[in-house]
């Protein structure tokens, strides 16, 4: 499965929760598949999906799912120790690990080679780290939500992209409707 | 009252409940004070752009954030300031140690100091400079202003403000 197929499959699960979605194609795909006011689309700032999600989770009680990519976690590796040491049991980090920088033309990342993000997350002190195959992502994600324990999911999948338009929604609109969903 | 205590008192009075820090020797006292306050969730960051992501999340989650960092971080965070904090119009008080000013013992710090105000100016970030201890009297108004206008705002604090740097 490629990332857009995973997103299509988990969209019914995501719909009920606050979602921080990674820059580029992941946000564009989620926006096209199932746009919700509970989705915060990152239009820039590669690497910070996990940091923004942790901040939201620590500030309020609703479940927060950060959808991240292997390339973005690699660019903000410092996030994993921060997550491990600031446990928010309403926070799930879902790393869609396709071993490539999808939004920029599928250049390979090191996670498709020797580097294991699950092993790194564990070494950083994250207690609930699950590596799964693409087809099992929905089941693992639902179990993580139900467990009410902070969980890092690394979903191994194929690289590949679909053609779709950029998000033209104003960033302040994205932020405002997300904040209203938090308060609702 | 120590200046560090006064600053953190002002943070608490402004309803700031979420503070991320990346240390600087000059900021050690204020970071200790942040860490000691039950009203504030103190979350140390490994890098300042990560900290700004945490602050953006906390703000959207309903808590007022602040970041405490060194001026070298301006070089690290320009993309985040522009594409996250400013693009989505989020407030962020930035208490910044202004290294490389008078009484600075480390020459390399001057290399960033000479760019600090120019960069902040280029980024259209409202900037305040605390040089004397009495300058901190404006902090409550600066914090109020930051959350009124939903912008990142820089508060530069130099070595003279902190009473010198080490034995220099």
Number of strands of chain B: 6
Q: How would the global form of chain B be characterised?
A: globular
Helix content of chain A: 40-55%
How confident overall, as mean pLDDT of chain A?
97
Q: How many distinct beta strands of chain A?
A: 8
Structural class, from secondary structure content of chain A?
A: alpha/beta
Oligomer: heterodimer
**Can you tell me the number of structural domains of chain A?**
1
Structure, described:
The complex is a heterodimer of chains A (184) and B (168). Chain A has helices at 3-14, 25-34, 49-59, 70-75, 79-85, 117-123, 137-147, 171-183, and strands at residues 18-21, 39-41, 64-69, 91-97, 100-101, 107-108, 129-133, 151-156. By secondary structure, chain A is α/β, with parallel strands linked by helices. Chain A has a single domain, classed as Thiamin diphosphate (ThDP)-binding fold, Pyr/PP domains (Rossmann fold, 3-Layer(aba) Sandwich). In chain A, the strands form two sheets. Chain A has a six-stranded parallel β-sheet, sandwiched between helices. The termini of chain A are far apart. With 168 residues, chain B is α/β, with parallel strands linked by helices. Helices cover 45% and strands 20% of the residues of chain B. Chain B contains six helices and six strands. A six-stranded parallel β-sheet of chain B has the order 2-1-3-4-6-5, with helices on both faces. In chain B, helix 1 (3-13) packs across helix 2 (28-36) and helix 3 (48-60) packs parallel to helix 4. The radius of gyration of chain B is 15 Å and the shape is globular. The two termini of chain B are 24 Å apart. In chain B, 49% of the residues are buried. The model of chain B has no long low-confidence stretch (mean pLDDT 96). The A-B interface holds A 20, 40, 42-45, 47-48, 50-60, 76, 78-79, 81-82, 86, 171-172, 174-175, 178-179, 182-183 and B 18, 41, 43-47, 49-63, 65, 79-80, 82-84, 87-90.
């Amino acid at each position: 499965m490629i990332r857009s197929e995973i997103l299509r499959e988990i969209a019914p699960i995501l719909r009920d929760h606050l979602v921080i979605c990674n820059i580029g194609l992941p946000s564009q795909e989620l926006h096209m598949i199932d746009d919700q006011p509970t989705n915060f689309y990152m239009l820039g700032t590669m690497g910070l999906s996990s940091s923004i999600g942790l901040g939201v989770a620590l500030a309020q009680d609703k479940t927060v799912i950060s959808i991240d990519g292997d390339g973005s976690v690699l660019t903000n590796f410092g996030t994993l120790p921060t997550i491990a040491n600031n446990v928010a049991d309403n926070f799930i980090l879902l790393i869609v690990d396709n071993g490539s920088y999808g939004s920029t033309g599928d250049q390979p990342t090191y996670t498709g080679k020797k580097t294991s993000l699950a092993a790194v997350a564990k070494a950083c002190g994250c207690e609930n780290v699950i590596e799964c195959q693409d087809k099992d992502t929905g089941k693992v994600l639902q179990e993580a939500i139900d467990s009410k324990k902070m969980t890092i999911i690394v979903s191994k999948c194929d690289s590949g992209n679909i053609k779709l338009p950029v998000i033209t929604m104003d960033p302040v609109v994205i932020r405002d409707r997300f904040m209203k969903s938090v308060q609702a | 009252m120590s200046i560090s205590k006064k600053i953190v008192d002002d943070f608490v009075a402004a309803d700031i409940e979420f503070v991320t820090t990346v240390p600087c020797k000059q900021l050690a006292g204020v970071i200790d004070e942040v860490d000691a306050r039950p009203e504030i969730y103190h979350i140390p960051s490994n890098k300042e752009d990560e900290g700004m992501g945490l602050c953006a999340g906390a703000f959207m989650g309903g808590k007022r954030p602040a970041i405490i960092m060194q001026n070298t971080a301006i070089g690290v965070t320009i993309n985040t300031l522009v594409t996250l904090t400013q693009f989505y119009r989020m407030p962020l008080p930035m208490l910044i140690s202004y290294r490389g000013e008078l009484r600075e013992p480390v020459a390399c710090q001057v290399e960033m100091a000479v760019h600090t105000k120019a960069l902040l100016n280029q980024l259209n970030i409202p900037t305040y400079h605390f040089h004397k201890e009495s300058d901190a009297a404006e902090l409550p108004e600066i914090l109020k202003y930051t959350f009124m206008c939903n912008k990142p705002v820089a508060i530069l604090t130099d070595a003279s403000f902190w009473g010198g740097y080490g034995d220099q």
